[in-house]
Amino acid sequence: MDHPLTRDTTPAVAAGPAERRRRPVGLPALAYGGDYNPEQWPEEVWEEDVRLMREAGVTMVSVGIFSWALLETAPGEYDFGWLDRLLDLLHAGGIRVDLGTPTVVPPAWFYRRHPEALPVTREGVRLEAGSRGAICHSSPAYQDAAAAITEQLARRYGDHPALAMWHVHNEYGVPVSACYCDTSAEHFRRWLRRRYTDLDELNEAWGTAFWGQRYGAWEEIRPPRLTPTAGNPAQQLDWARFTSDALLDNFRRERDVLHRLSPGIPVTTNFMTALSQCESLDYWAWGREVDIVANDHYLVAEAPRNHINLAMSADLTRSVAGGRPWLLLEHSTGAVNWQPRNLPKQPGEMARNSLTHIARGSDGAMFFQWRASRYGAEKFHSAMLPHAGTDSRIWREVVALGASVGALGSVRDSRVVSDAAVLWDWQSWWAQKLEWRPSVELDARAQADAWYAAAWDRHLTVDFAHPEADLSGYPLVLVPALYLMTGAASRNLRRYVETGGTLAVGHFSGIVDEHDTVHPGPYPGALRDVLGLTVEEFAPLPAGRGIRLTGPGGDLTAASWSEFVVARGADPQWTYADGPTAGHPAVTRHALGGGSAWYVSTRLDEAGLDAVLGRVCADAGLPERALPRDVEVVERVGELGRYLFAVNHSGTDARIPLPGDGMELLTGLLVGGVLDVPAGGVRVVHL
Ligand code: GLA
User: Fold this and answer.
1) Whether pTM exceeds 0.90
2) Using one digit for the tens of pLDDT, what is the confidence trace for 490-527?
3) Domain count of the chain?
4) Cβ(324)–Cβ(415) under 8 Å?
5) Which of 124, 218, 333, 613 has the smallest count of CB within 10 Å of its CB?
6) Pocket around ligand 1 at a 6 A CB cut-off
7) Last residue of a domain, one of 620, 653, 669
8) Which atom of ligand 1 is closest in space to residue 336's alpha carbon?
């Protein structure tokens, strides 16, 4: 099997304090465990918890995430006794602690004093306390109170022997990210004053000449609250950027307290990179600020082939971590409680999920949560220790998975080997999602999902990259949907192709700049030269209408979108056979410098995308991988060697070629030449 090394996979050498903080302290192998909420149980139960954690091979638990009200019982009055006893107990049991700062749920006394810290929706409704995450992130009272409890925790536990890492807040950005109150409005204006030198620059960037929206004083600017009809898109885009930045500032505030008072201990917060799960954070910016990138991932239980979404989220997380190992902080052992129908996982599915995350760069697998709650909103959520207790399928699978994760200790710190890059930009996504686009079926996320799935089906391992990132190490770069493209990104892609890269771009990309202003000249302004074409007019299709493309190897089918493409240097590969743009090029290839740039001007179905991607991969010199469908093969490479992970999501036993001999780590058997992966099973070969 050919997995060319396309990137430098040399493990980072441990150097300064920042580098030392890249992994949980005192954890000898991979992390295995989950969120642990012992405050929901009498202390007698804790002893049993630790005993069972050891039985299951748990190495680390996350505690204290929702405990503010129990730790600071009244303003400035603290009760740390229970947490002292808990940490000591865990330490005695050899379980490491990922300690939460509980700042996602301020106590009731806080809201009584500061009702203004409750968030206001775009419609002007102030949300109530009594759930979680009801926070105006611009509230000085909230910021001060969060810093104060963080400081208390850092002083008390900053050098506790059980402490492995700090877990700030919980899932910034959900369930609420933006607050539209007057305090937030003032904060937004301060942010804008830093972004724009003066009001003239802002008026121009926001295109306020349109509909007479010009501002004559900073004080006139407000958040993009509910308006009678479509609001100013550039204002909304800046608001989205401001929101991500405002939350990131609050993360940094806590992180800096922890770095100061608990030096050497890594600080993280749990991301939700799956594009369906958190939309409001620019994780490219966030990834630079955490010591360890951590992620939570939940399958959409009813979605077909949902393991592809899992792989995508894992790849995106690793990419946000700059290719370094990251940590899966939450997923589920079985059903969640918040989907319309909460289907259980199939036998073996949990292990496939966990081990796929590890295959794709996670140095562990953690869950929400350790012991199922008896009360509260999440009592029907699965756990490592379910309501059914230890005489249950889930528990037996949890214990077996603990042994598997334990057998993979040497994988730690190794890096995933990738074949190609997919460009993704949260800011472009935010811009494209705004109202009044040429078709409601333009959906950047759906495009990214479809292109990722096509690459996954061809057994390509991809990294994600920011459009302005260095792409020189990749033979192939895919751009499913980048509506917004800066001048720097445009120059980056041109340089990439001219120096020999193969680029493939999806429709409605390169249209506007960072202010949602259309690039001058014919579409796609940021990509015309590199693609060797212009688009004279968009031609979205009526709902449900399919069109045909003719070209090499037979017709392809597409839907929802077409374009009047005019080749200006590019060679048409497939042509529209019917629909409004019949006779125009549909898929093109432009030879430029040492490379080539492909354009796909419509939304191809699965077979169509596969056919085009096959040609694009051949152009990039990527080999066809003759592997069975729904068998996922990923490699990690480190100082101790190469690790080949094979995950069989299909219902049939599979046999795959091996590039050498090695030890299968989950069975302890020697293997060579070929590897048998049973239906639904996972194998990990240390080559
Ligand atoms: C999120 C949260 C957890 C829990 C789970 C349930 O990931 O971080 O606290 O609510 O969802 O799936």
Assistant:
1) yes
2) 999 999 999 999 999 999 999 999 999 999 999 999 99
3) 3
4) yes
5) 124
6) 170-171, 296, 298, 330, 336, 368, 378, 381
7) 620
8) 12
